Amino acid sequence: MSEITKLTVHEALNALKNKEFTALELTEAYLRNMENGKKYNAYITECADVALQQAKEADKRYATGTNRALEGIPLGIKDLFCTKDIRTTAASHILDNFVPPYESTVTQHLLDDGAVFLGKLNLDEFAMGGSNETSYFGPVINPWSKDKLLVPGGSSGGSAAAVAAHLCAAATGTDTGGSIREPAAFCGITGIKPTYGRCSRYGIVAFASSLDQAGPIAQDVRDCAILLKSMAGFDDKDSTSCDVSVPDYEKFLDGDVRGLTFGLPKEYRPDGLNPEVSAYWDKAAEYLKARGAKVKEISLPHTKYALATYYVLAPAEASSNLARYDGIRYGFRAKEGQHLDDLYINTRTQGFGAEVRRRIMIGTYVLSAGYYDAYFLKAQKMRRLIYNDFMNAFNQCDVILTPTSPITAFPIGDESMLQNPINMYLNDVFTVSVNLAGLPALSLPIGLSATGLPYGIQLIGKPFDEGTLFNAAAKLEADAKFERK
Amino acid sequence: MAIDTHTVRRIAFLSRLKIEEEKIESTKEEFSKILNWIEELNEVNTDDVEPLISVNNTTLRMRDDEVTAGNCRAEILKNAPAAEYDYFAVPKVVE
Description:
- By secondary structure, chain A is α/β, with parallel strands linked by helices.
- Chain A contains 16 helices and 11 strands.
- Chain A has 3 domains: about 325 residues, Amidase signature (AS) enzymes (Alpha-Beta Complex), CATH 3.90.1300; about 60 residues, no CATH class; about 80 residues, no CATH class.
- Chain A has an 11-stranded mixed β-sheet with strand order 1-3-2-4-6-5-10-11-9-7-8, with helices on both faces.
- Chain B is mainly alpha-helical.
- Helix content of chain B is about 30%, strand content about 5%.
- Classes of the chains: A alpha/beta, B mainly alpha.
């Protein structure tokens, strides 16, 4: 592996500015890594020709001093973002021939800042999953795998694995219930889900529209700050986009945690929590205390109900969003179907994988006549209580500190996860509440398990207070001294 | 709540999905398990709670009713599984 692909985004930007190597050399080095890293199955579609062209353009910009914020930085794009003239599949058979005629707002921002796109990254089908095993294109391998092949987490599993294995300098992800933070934790890297409304959802294949948010997955906290600044911003093409100015997040990295109070929710430490997870959580709190921050126990009383609430609302929204896949206007169409309904049914049954079909049906059920109030409305009311828990907690603290996941990366094909979908859903226990409340949350690596696998620690902030998360995360990163792959 | 096989078939049709006959029973079991788990929400009294539909409490913006992305028929039809005479083509729906 070429040493230049081990650089972070900020290091590579400095080197490019200092003419230590060219953008073309950097892109070519990543393309070689991708060639040698096919075993990870991180990319669904590679676009070397586009990337080389963009890199040449970047070199021209550096030569003339017109280089932009991400000029020549090779990125991987989660295959949930529509990219103009580049196939976008959502890791589903139903979209495996779809070539968008338009660009998502977030990827357009990155292109406008001079980024190079290496290709489209693998994910759970329609981002529904926590292990990247539901992809039509097969599972992604976690670069931390030893004797057994491990999952990278999901749904942004290709993004996390590609960043950890240096198959791209950084990547985009999306997070509906933990899909940026869990894979970042499993792969020993950093990711942030920003506040709902911070990044435009225009052109991102929709899963659960009231929960979905885009964010960066990168090697360190500074890279996340640089990328989020580029990705974020108001967009009138997304009616839920917030017209709030985007600060220069890098400025927060030099901040101080003195005067900040960190809340540790007692409900996140149930009986039976893995002692390693508990110990790293305490260690992170100690690091912050040693730097002069206050740490206190807080309560989020409805935490226990967050998962069930999420697994009503997310499938309900998904069943509605995925009604558009009918085999008529784009995507896969089944061969059989004499009548229109047969065509719809055959197309959708053959086009969607098992987990997606399961969630569409659960969602259809909770929205159907007679059950709407008992399930969907009930869950929306629970969502209010969960939201209120956070708002009350933020009267006593500035940031909430929790583990990212109760476990480390598990083996591909784990029987207990596959046989009972609820076991897989339980892995999201520390991440889903944040999406229900629309809050920003960042995960960074905190240390290794006894078996040598990374654990993540999560910082949850007030709405639009990503800056404070970057400040605190930079301190934890400096103290934890985690060694990336 | 346990659901019956009739409900499983009805939900599958509403979803425009087909469940093979031999899988109806196992699907029923699986859905009942998930719905039972979800019913733990009933432990909490939410009678006076206003449902949270969106965390953004802003009202939707108004804009002029103008075409913003038009004249792209050819580009759109490029992704159609079947197109004829500049339209999407579907199986015959009227005899």
